[in-house]
User: Fold this.
Amino acid sequence: MKHVKCVNFLNLDCEKGMCALSKAIVPIDGEGSDACQSYQPAPECGNCRHFYDGDKYGMGMCKGYEKENWAYATCGAFSCEKYESRRYQEA
Amino acid sequence: MNDAQSKIYDILKARGIDAENADGIKEEDIPEASERFSKLMEIYYSMKVTADMEIPYWYNRLWWENDGDILEVRRARAVGGAYAHSTPTVLPYEKLVMSKTKNFRGAFPFPWVCASFFNSLAESLMNEVDAPAESEADAVSVVGAGGGNVTESYGDIISIAKKFGMRKEEIPVLVKVSKYWEGISVEDISDKYAQMLPDYDQFKRNMDAVVVMFDSFAIPQGREVINYYMPLQYGFDRIIQLCDEKINETMGEAGEDGILGMSRGYYYAAMKEITAGLSKWCDNYGKRAEDLATREPDEEVRANYLEIAQVMHNVAHKRPSTFREALQMTLCCHLGVVNEDPQSGQSIGRLGQVLQPFYEKDMEDGITTDEEVIELLELYRIKITCIECFASAGVSGGVLSGNTFNNLSLGGQNYDGLSAVTPLEYLIVEAAMRAKTPQPTLSVLYDEKTPEDFLMKAAACTKLGMGFPAWMNNQTGMNFMLRQYGAEGMDLYDARAWCLGGCLESAPGCFMPLDYNGKVTMIPGGASPTCGTGIHFTGLPKILELVLTNGLDKRTGKQVFPPHNEKIDTYEQMVDLWKKYLDISNRIVNRINNMQMDIWRKYNMPAVNSLLKPDCFAKGQHIGNCGSRYNACINFESCGTITFINSLASIKKNVFDDRAFTLEEMTEALVNNFGFKTAYETNVFSPDFRESTESASKYDRIFAACIHAPKYGNADSYVDSLLKDYHMFMLHYLPTLRSYYGKPEYLCQISVSTHGPQGFVTLATPDGRLAGTTYSDGSVSAAAGTDKNGIYAIFESATVYDHSQNQNAQMNLKLHPSAVKGLSGTRKLLDVIRAYMRKGGFHVQFNVVGSDTLKEAQKEPDKYRDLMVRVAGFTQYWCEIGKPIQDEVIYRTEYDQA
Assistant:
């Protein structure tokens, strides 16, 4: 698991973010990009139970709203009122 | 200390300035910025300018899901819904929150405005996505050059427009969203109809030759002043209630207006949508802060998150009840506007006057201190500095130099005609002195009523080398307002509300009654749409070149204008031909820009800005439907004025008066760059750098005559009179051009950074400037190195015409720091400014930095990451501006005496 996929990851730019717990700058790619034991999945479309049929680019479909539409897995979903964690659903 | 100095010190002491301690004031005497600011700036310096697709994705989705709805409602739903879905990022050191995107220094593309750029790149972008990944070492060690600019792709980052980094996984989203808009973006639709014009080819030839720099749709909003009155007075929940009341009143009623009357109901429905979107956006930041508080181990940081949450939830629903909430509300609205279009120059306006009632109440209630307010203002500076504009490489680099010109004005007059300076404005200047960032740039509206101690404080800030505050003449600005907007009912009261939109675009305003703290305060704000988007940056010297070459661009071999086929026998004949070519260019460019902006306002009308800008809400009309109080705001923008004037002087003197050589001989010398290598060959853009070719001696005589011809800026009436003639012509000619609002146009004289690229495409000029080097900067700055008689001689030259004829005039000066050292130096600087203002000069700004420092910074940019310079009407980090402009700034005449 990567920092960038963690709920504690605070977006900074295209190559890095900040860990909300340690306050350290963490890279998105490469060395040092693996998450720590405090990892919890971030809300993003790819983690939502309404997201399905994702292709190799992460492009899939969203059935969370009245009108079904395409979506992409890495889109942030913190602000989406229809977001439901896939993990939560499985539990 | 002599008697005169002693007397000055006594006077200043009586006004609250301790001269004894201030004399010899050094930069290090200024208090450090707050710890929060320093921590966030540390992050800022390591930031890459980043584009992502969250907001474009949601905009696109909501737009198409509402296909068939009333356009203004559909647009507001898409904009508001996109904001409401974006990921809120809250950092532990912040007090003010909200950003354009989830990233610290983020932006995003607008394919619904311009899709062709992305669609043309679709295949190559996808190829980059599918390419095998680089080694990990490469991926983490290769970085983009030039501060935060991502000029090349690396690792999983794709460079777009030579500035923005986008992650590979978002590229398929960019490509997919852009496809929706193929053939129907603002750019595409306007181009389809433009092609119906018989002179369309002339338009293309103009643009290809860079006679004119760029299209209006590229940045359709900005160069205007925002207005924060509505949310400060009512708050979002009450605005939604007001929309419901207005819908009840106007839906289905045309009133007296058979054309637009019925639109009012739809307007209010749209405003309800956009207000709900802004409210949700704020609430989401509050929720994220609460979320972070639940997992935050540090008590102090947790308390900060909870404070942020409370502020954001209050701002989401209620009218602000503290200074902090009011500042946060203005930031929310500002970001809301700058996110709804590719945009530069959405100016903050007179914030220190708008927020003074909130500051005053907090101080009365004892709930804040000046230091706390300064800290908030420091943090605000970072937020504004992070505002990026996603546009093409030409617009981002060639025009804007990466800046977005969010100008904050100070001073001027209040509603009652007295000095408008407030106690909060002192703190704004103080925050700028402590917290050094390029934005917001500051502008002082100099008025004889402005308190002396405020002017001294502002001058002390100017001395710090950040290039601001710039100084504008308040009376000249007011006179221009009455001249340009009088026909729309502008009176003296509204004229007093003007200030700078963009870097230097004088923009009309009005005062609105803020009911707060048990009293009504008339607060100023903008009252017009963009004061730009007319004809963008016409290279005046390039047109003269084309007169001499019979309309043929010798650089490209293409015929730009129809051949005039005239043998030019007199100076007057030559100027007439210049006017003819200018008119050919203007007529077609103006019509096509009008069409671009008309398509924009029909399909892409401002949503947030149409909520904020008076009198849209009162009229029930958005900005595209002339909802604003003033609409005669569209302009013609010039570039290279003094290069042009000096060139005219050289031809007049050498060819027609002295008959030293013929016009044909001069033209041949220009085509051959006076026998020197061009800047394209040497990659040096300084006018003082010359490398000879074998044919140099052939043009020695002509070159010497051109160099020694009379030059503007020396109080020489021979050349200054030509500047006056030019202005009198433009004053009467430009209003014959009409904007898409059906109003007369006027002259705007900001070069921004266009004197770089427009100089690049221009051959050598008759003033002795070599091919490819920059034009003169500004509009009344002397050409670099040609002003020999001191600052006051330039002032004499610059004021040979009435500056209130035009939207602006731009004077850039460079002072060596030693020229303004200590308090006496501050006084000298203010004396210089005052002298120019009293002569009627509109604007002056200063780079207080030595050329040696700049040369060192050019060699070793990494050592000067925080060095800032004034380019045109804006300040930018040295390392983030292009080499031609760097060369030009280095070569500007440096005065070692004020």
Summary: The mean pLDDT of chain B is 92. Chain B touches chain A through 53 residues (CB under 8 Å).
